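Q: For a teaching handout, I want to show students what a protein-ligand complex looks like in token form. Below are the inputs, and the small molecule is NAI. Please produce the holo structure.
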Amino acid sequence: MADKFDLVVIGTGPGGYVCAIRAAQLGMNVAVVEKRGVHGGTCLNVGCIPSKALLHASELFEEAGHEFGAMGIKVSPPELDLPAMLAYKQEGIDGNVKGVEFLLKKNKVTTFFGTGSIPGAGRVTITGDSGDLQSIETSNIVIATGSDVAQLPGIEIDEKRIVSSTGALELQSVPEHLVVVGAGVIGLELGSVWRRLGSEVTVVEFLDHITPGLDAEVSKNFQRILKKQGMKFKLSTKVTGIDSSGPRLSVSTEPSKGGETTMLDADVVLVSIGRAPYTKGLGLEVAGVELDGHGRVITDDHFKSNVDGIYAIGDVIAGPMLAHKAEDEGVAVAEILAGQSGHVNYGVIPGVIYTRPEVATVGKTEEELKAEGVAYNTGKFPFTANGRAKVNRSTDGFVKILADAATDRILGVHMIGPNVGEMIAEAVVAMEFGGSAEDLARSCHAHPTLTEAVKEAALAVAKRTIHM
Ligand code: FAD
Ligand code: NAI
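A: Here is the structure, written as tokens, with NAI included.
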């Protein structure tokens, strides 16, 4: 094992492990430090992968119970075997984690399990579980330590009855009433899981709308559809306390602006009010690395902190907290360190909410374009007019394309509907190439596919849809 590395990456989530692999591909001698004991970070262990496993299984459970009959498939009502479903989820995690382990080995990346800290540029100290210390030398350090659950002041998460997303992925029985605090991505995805499995779900949201930052028309439609599915919403409301002394939780809420207290009984409360950058234990004060007001490592255009030789990527720096954003930054910083021109196009990072229907979005929202005074044309096409969606009985939602009024360049694409999480890739590629709505409209789309809704929305920008 070399005692001096070209690069040490701290944290092996999607940002860190991808960075390490790309750097190794480019000829660097790379080590990673991970304190979790397994690779993959939040995403593989307690985030993207386990949540998608439960979303997939619970979606099929709901379909089998409520939708098979309409297609001529007779089944007796499906029974939930929750331990088996959780084991299926774990199998998905283990498979993916092993995959990362294999890739790191294949690329000859050295792994140190333990907590990494930075006494200064050029050196990383690793503290093992038993307190043993190891010190390694390196030309460069990439901090990829990710994020952790944001806490609600005065409310203690015990991961049993008052849970974060981590506990919500591990509940050992279906709560009768699940109260979700925060109508963001985690709350709506995991709220959907437990609603499908039998919980009554009430979502308490501070703002007067769900999914802040989403195109408002999509957000409104999304809430309407979730409501139709049985999810309850208490908007413009804040949780002020939870009494856990009784057999059921007693949740105090009041209007966001203040006012009368209303109580909600709950079996489980999911706190999903965001995530906070994680730098604990890194000793950044000692290394002199500067953080912003949100606790994120401040970086320049090349992901470099204020200290030479120390870089940062992923959830621990500014920008959307998304696995693919972290991955792309990992590739970019590795390429920059190798003397190439690594780059991330932040204007074209897709976001997907994996509910049913899914929500997928890239680029500017209508609200953003209005605020920036940009003149744009809108093309919209509903899934009710798409042949494939009709036969699949999945007609909720639409595709909306926003294109520059003068040049027709695509500025934003916002979709709600079946499989739109996959379909958004077409919009991302078009935007990455500076494509116009006309480009999408003239590209041949296979029939019958849901993607024809994208083509039709692009045609709608020029007011010439065929199927509506
Ligand atoms: P992380 O994945 O958080 O990895 C950081 C790693 O660093 C961790 O393994 C941690 O143990 C390690 N570490 C921290 N400090 C140290 C230290 N001092 N020494 C050594 N190791 C350390 N994003 C999506 O794009 N799509 C999704 O579907 C999605 N679903 C999600 C669902 C849930 C429930 C959650 C919580 C998140 C989800 N996310 C999703 C967000 C996604 O998980 C994060 O954006 C992504 O994991 C960030 O990657 P990262 O590499 O920056 O950090
Ligand atoms: P979020 O930022 O998406 O949503 C948090 C919600 O909580 C917001 O609507 C906010 O207004 C609300 N809120 C904040 N404080 C509140 C309070 N005191 N009371 C009531 N409501 C309050 O955060 P979330 O859902 O916790 O997710 C964290 C991160 O994980 C997100 O940044 C997201 O990018 C990532 N993630 C991504 C997924 C995906 O890509 N599909 C899935 C899950 C998580």
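A: Two things your students might notice: DSSP finds 14 helices and 22 strands in the chain. Residues 3-148+276-344 form a domain with the FAD/NAD(P)-binding domain fold (CATH 3.50.50.60).
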